[in-house]
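Hi all, posting the design record for the shared folder.

TITLE: backbone redesign
STEP: 1 of 1
STRUCTURE INPUT:
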């Protein structure tokens, strides 16, 4: 069943402007927020402006929450839950938009800096599923934090301003690459060869003599002068190596956006904005949840596998003044979720990997994946028929353009999301998101109209689920 192209819905200049304006706001967000911490800080600022309160401040005040109140909870700077209290008891469940804000990248190792043949390098360990050969010879930036022993946390962001230097990984010239070109794609660039070049000027001694590790020492001097930390402080740092530069409009018609990290910030952004835009007189309590670590299995204290969401919901219930363990369990079980994660857009250049009747298409609206997983739906949530029917009705009620898809051909590969983890609470869950071309590449492509339909779909879900 072929779905209509969503651009056909926007025939007036006024309506088309809404799509383009939202796309531009998102493009600016994507350009600015390239790490989990940066995303959380951005969303907290937006929530503050919309009248939301930090749940820690509400707890400290001793006040109770009531219908219409708005709060958020932050977990270690890398995970965020935003709530609007509805008029119904929380026991009847909440409507949750859940997305992740981590993206494939390279992380600096704990002892990253070294010198080799008069070049200073920083050693990395890649994060998530990447094609390693895509990360060489492109401009890279360093984003993150350095935590000192005295508790001071220093923010690092180098490579985004026009006046900043950028960094990069070299590749072997084609003239000498006959052996390299015979390797399989997974081995063309090895993981241990993802070494970022960061300097080449040596530090000279008083007599003008070059000292040992002089280039490395000069880099350390520059870092200390600018940021005030020593080499040892890198042991307690989280520095992410990401593509440098802003996201860009893509195509003659500016209908698309090219940028890093759209898996899954292209779903996180409309999820949060849908809640902030619709925070008055909700029947069911609504939540926008953005989490870390999805790209490496949703593990750890800031991933969906942690108890952060469950614990936060318990605190929320207690602030409403009606907490019990049984009611908390009922609230979790009665909740409904859109696991907001991207889908692979059919690429006409690589159609052999897709099954056309069950693929997502750029420009055809919000995508629903009844199941993801791989080879026999392994590790998939697989939403119930009844819930799929309910979601269809919600989307059609607000004239949202939507489509359904699988992640490529059976046995071709596959992938997972946070949906199965949320399903462990007995919640109704389905994957939904925006179609992406070149997923997990340093620069991914989405359609602005799909982004806008995602916003409308998430708004409808908050109101009617």
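Okay, here is what came back for every position:
SEQUENCE:
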């Amino acid at each position: 069943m072929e779905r209509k192209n969503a651009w056909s819905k926007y025939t007036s200049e006024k309506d088309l402007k809404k799509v383009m304006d939202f796309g531009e706001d998102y493009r600016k967000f994507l350009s600015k927020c390239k790490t989990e911490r940066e995303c959380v800080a951005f969303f907290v600022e937006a929530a503050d402006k919309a009248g939301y309160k930090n749940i820690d401040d509400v707890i400290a005040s001793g006040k109770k929450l009531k219908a219409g109140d708005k709060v958020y909870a932050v977990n270690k700077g890398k995970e965020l839950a935003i709530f609007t209290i509805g008029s119904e008891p929380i026991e009847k469940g909440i409507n949750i938009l859940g997305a992740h804000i981590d993206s494939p990248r390279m992380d600096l190792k704990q002892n990253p800096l070294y010198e080799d043949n008069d070049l200073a390098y920083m050693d990395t360990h890649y994060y998530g599923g990447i094609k390693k050969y895509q990360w060489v010879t492109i401009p890279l930036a360093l984003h993150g934090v350095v935590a000192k022993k005295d508790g001071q946390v220093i923010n690092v962001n180098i490579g985004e301003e026009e006046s900043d230097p950028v960094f990069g990984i070299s590749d072997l010239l084609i003239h000498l690459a006959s052996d390299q070109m015979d390797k399989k794609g997974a081995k063309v660039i090895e993981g241990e060869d993802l070494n970022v070049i960061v300097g080449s000027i040596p530090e000279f001694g008083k007599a003008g003599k070059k000292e040992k590790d002089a280039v490395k020492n000069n880099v350390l001097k520059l870092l200390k002068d600018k940021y005030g930390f020593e080499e040892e402080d890198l042991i307690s740092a989280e520095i992410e190596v990401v593509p440098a530069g802003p996201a860009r409009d893509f195509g003659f018609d500016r209908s698309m956006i090219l940028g890093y990290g759209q898996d899954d910030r292209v779903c996180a952004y409309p999820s949060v904005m849908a809640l902030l835009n619709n925070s008055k007189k909700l029947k069911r309590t609504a939540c926008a949840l953005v989490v870390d670590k999805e790209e490496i299995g949703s593990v750890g204290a800031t991933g969906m596998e942690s108890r952060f969401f469950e614990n936060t919901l318990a605190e929320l219930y207690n602030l409403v003044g009606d907490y019990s363990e049984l009611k908390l369990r009922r609230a979790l079980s009665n909740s409904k979720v859109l696991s907001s994660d991207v889908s692979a857009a059919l690429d006409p250049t690589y159609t052999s990997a897709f099954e056309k009747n069950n693929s997502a298409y750029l420009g055809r609206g919000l995508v629903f994946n009844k199941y993801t997983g791989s080879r026999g739906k392994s590790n998939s949530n697989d939403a119930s028929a009844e819930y799929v029917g309910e979601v269809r009705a919600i989307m059609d009620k607000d004239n949202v353009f939507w489509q359904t898809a699988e992640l490529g051909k059976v046995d071709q590969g596959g992938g997972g999301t946070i949906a199965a983890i949320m399903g462990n609470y007995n919640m109704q869950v389905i994957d939904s998101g925006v179609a992406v071309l070149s997923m997990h590449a340093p620069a991914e492509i989405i359609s602005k109209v799909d982004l806008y339909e995602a916003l409308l779909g998430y708004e409808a879900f908050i109101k009617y689920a």
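COMMENT: The chain has a mean pLDDT of 94.
Let me know if anyone wants the other runs.
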